[in-house]
Model the fold of this input.
Amino acid sequence: MTSGELLHRMPPTQDGARDPFKVQDLALDGRAIGERGSRTRSRILTSTATILEAVGINDLRVVDIARSVGCSPATFYQYFRDSSDAVLALAEQVGEETIPLGAEMRVDWRGPDGVAAARRMVDGFVRYWDAHRAVLRTRNLAAQEGDQRFREVRNRALRPLTEGLALMISESPGEGSKELTPYAAAAALVAMLERMAEFHSDLEGYGASRDDVVTTTALIIHSTVTR
Done:
C-alpha cells in the first residue's frame, strides 16, 4: 500500500492509542482547524503523497495538489508553507511505522527463533520502504542536502531500530561483541538495512531476489548482534 492509500485508509485508533496519522489541530496562523479543516488537511496530504509518487519532488507543485483535492492554493497555504512542508508532514507520519519493528528485538536472538526474528524485522523494514519509497527517498535526499527538519525526522524514525540493536549488542555475552562500540555498530547496521531496503530491486539484475536480500541482510545483522 502506498503512502497516499495508507493515509486514506488508516483506521482510527482505539483505547486512546496514539494515531501516527493524527493531523495537527492548528492552522499555520494558530487557529483551531476543526473537524472539517482536519479532513481538508488529510486530503491535502493524501494528494501530496500520490502526486509525489508520480512526479517526484522537483515537479511537485502546490497548484497541482490543490487542484487534485478540489481546493484553492490559498486553502493549501492555510495548513502548509509550501510543498516541501507537506512532504515533511508525510515523512513524520510514515516514520512512526518503524516502531512496531522493535517487537522483533525483544526476542532472544541467541535462541532458536533469533534468525527468524531478525528476518521478520528486515522484511518489515523492506515492506515499509516499498510502501513509502517516494516520501522516504525525498526525506533522505533533503536530509543529506542539509535540511535539518528532514534530518531530525529521519533520525527519529530510525532511532528505535538503532537504539534497540545497540542495546542488544551491549548486552550480548559473546566475546566478539566486546570488540564493537554498540551504538556505532548499530548505526552501521541500520544504514546498511536502509540502503538495502531502498535499492533491493536494483540487485535483481545481479541474480539477487527480494527474498535473497532480506535473508542475507538479516543474517548479517543477526551475526553481528550475536557474535
About this structure: The chain has a mean pLDDT of 88. The chain has two domains: 3-82, 95-225. The chain has ten helices and no strands. Residues 3-82 form a domain with the Arc Repressor Mutant, subunit A fold (CATH 1.10.10.60).
